[in-house]
Amino acid sequence: MSEKELVARAQAGDFDAFSALVTANKTKIYALAVKMTGNSEDADDVVQDTLVKANDNIEHFRGESSFGTWLYSIALNQTRALLSKKKQTDLKPIEEYLPSQPSQSLDEHSNSKLFDWKDPHTALEDQELKEIIDRELAALPYKYREAFLLKYYEELPIKEIAKIINESVASTKSRVLRARLALRERLAEIFKEQYG
Q1: What's residue 84's pLDDT?
Q2: What are phi and psi of 127, to 5 degrees?
């Protein structure tokens, strides 16, 4: 049975169809929630709240995106609500991550603290590095963490991420860039401490 058929049945009150939709997406929603909250207890709460909200609002799902994308949106909103109680400082302005002289490129700037992390997927293959990245990612403010996770962990296109987080494409790109720069800076510091 296709997703479209399952959605139609779920909207007509078929709980088995809704369960099938949830089963197909629950693992990814949980993984995203763990990355966003930093712990399994909060992630469990996010998933439970997400599924309750999705069940209560299934009739409002219009099928403009996949059911999984719709669940991501709900999960991110639930995570925002959970984390809004925790005060997190915002990232520094982007200019503070860049070389002091605008004419210099990042490669020419020998004192730059940016660690050149070009391929997140290759880097994540190293378990030790993965743990460091996960820890540093959990320290990012929510709005940057969510954009980064959706881009590099869930491999969603920027346009789809923008829809999910209800931001413009330009703002979404900026959030992904700021998250990358912040992670690069922290990773450079960590590597300098360990291998410097």
Answers
A1: 78
A2: -60, -45
**Whole-number percent of the chain with pLDDT over 90:** 48
Cβ neighbours for 162, distance < 8 A, ≥ 6 positions apart: 168, 169, 171, 172
pLDDT in tens, 31-41: 999 988 888 99
Pick the CATH number of 94-195 from 3.30.310.50, 1.20.1250.20, 1.10.10.10, 3.40.50.300: 1.10.10.10
pTM of the full predicted structure? 0.63
What is the average pLDDT across 61-86? 87
Amino acid at 194: Q
